[in-house]
Amino acid sequence: MTTTTLAQFNAASPQEAAQTLRPCLPIDRWIEEIVSGRPYDDIESVVASAHLAASPLRPDEVDAALAHHPRIGERAAGDSREATLSRSEQSGLSIDEELTAALRAGNAEYEARFDRVFLIRAAGRSTAEILEQLTRRLSNDDETESAEVADQLRQIAILRLQGALSA
């Protein structure tokens, strides 16, 4: 992902600023709220605005954002900025044959249970921890799991935003 300085982000046209934000979380309302809050004094202010704009995320927004996320443990296809970010976020996962099979089975069970891909912030997590969280979340009720998915989307968006902007 191309890094933009905070000064460039503040000075960019609304369309250019939105292009910086879209790979972080492709939700128009979220993007518009952050863009309309410019100029920001520091990156922490942008992050605070981004967190507030993503709290809460509506179910339709979550569904739209999930369309851009591959299954955990699978390589994102394409050359979009979102796919590049996803590959980078999952690049630290060491996945052997046994873990691959367990993730594949867990993903299938999760999708059958919740009718969506399993989403988790992969950055900073081990494959074993991801598999443990996948197993734990399979016992969630629909409401609890929807809240967890929205929280994971927020975490991913904030990490991507911090990576997209520099001081």
Write a structural description.
- The chain is an all-alpha fold and 167 residues long.
- The chain has 9 helices and 2 strands; from the N terminus they run E-H-H-H-H-H-H-H-H-H-E.
- It has helices at 6-11, 14-21, 28-36, 43-53, 59-66, 81-90, 97-114, 127-137, 142-164; strands at 4-5, 165-166.
- The protein has a two-stranded parallel ribbon with strand order 1-2.
- It is elongated.
- The two termini are 16 Å apart.
- The mean pLDDT is 88.
**What's the overall average pLDDT, rounded?**
88
The N- and C-terminal alpha carbons lie at a distance of 16 Å
- The residue ranges in which pLDDT falls below 50 over 5 or more consecutive positions are none
Number of strands: 2
Give me the Rg, rounded: 16 Å
As laid out across the biggest beta sheet, the strand order is: 1-2
**CATH architecture classification:** Orthogonal Bundle
**Beta strand %:** under 5%
- The helix fraction, in percent, is 55-70%
**Major beta sheet summary:** 2 strands, parallel
The CATH homologous superfamily: Oxo-4-hydroxy-4-carboxy-5-ureidoimidazoline decarboxylase
Instruction: Give me the CATH fold name.
Output: UraD-like
Q: How many helices does DSSP assign?
A: 9
Supply the number of structural domains: 1
Global structural class: mainly alpha
CATH class: Mainly Alpha
Q: What's the overall geometry?
A: elongated
Spell out the helices and strands N to C.
Answer: EHHHHHHHHHE
